[in-house]
Amino acid sequence: MSEPGRGVCLVIGAGDGLGASIARAFAREGLGVCVTRRPRHTDAIDTLAEAIRAEGGKAYSFGLDARVEADVAALVERIEREIGAIEVLVFNIGANVRFPVVETTTQVYSKVWEMAALAGFLTSREAARAMIERGRGTILFTGATASLRGGAGFSAFAGAKHALRALAQSLARELGPKGVHVAHVVIDGAIDGAFIRGLMPDAAERLAREEILAPDEIARNYVWLHNQKRGAWTFEMDLRPWKETW
User: Fold this and answer.
1) Residue 2 — very low, low, confident or very high, per pLDDT cuts 50/70/90?
2) What's the sign of the alpha-carbon dihedral 121, 126, 127, 132?
3) Which domains occur in the chain, in start order?
């Protein structure tokens, strides 16, 4: 059994940007890191795990469709049995899409909800079962501006992110008295990475001026949340660049 403060950090949705930074940050804290993405992205997370190991950390990669209940339960059980106690769960699946409401199909709306809300429920429920037994643990959800307000063209994304935030609120109230810290992080602004650099030709200059979010700086805050003493836990944190309007 792992000692408190170490053990495993399971990152659901360890993409090339924020998810990778979160995984590296917890590896530097001395936790073993388990990173997941959908099975079609296993090459990318294998590369991420190899890079973390090259830096001296412990890392393991798994292909996972977090919408599939049996697969989520099996992965959590395997990690607990073969790798170590899951001390931190980070749910970081995005699912950000933009469609006018009249062009939003039932398939799109359902898929976005499954990815950003249902998957959050399944992964946090399975991790919570183990954490409750130990009387400790941290569950962190990545939110967005859409968690708080729905924008034009974001009916599917906002609905799913609102649902995820409500889940986080319920879990915080239910699991806090059992020793499990649940927090929801609102990311309000563009995050530097390949996607944003494709949309913003001046993204590098904006990053240098700290006008967009740096993934490594966001990740530091996730680690800080995990290390908080239970006498002063944060439930909701919002992060934005200094020039972001809100």
Assistant:
1) very low
2) positive
3) 8-239 (3.40.50.720)
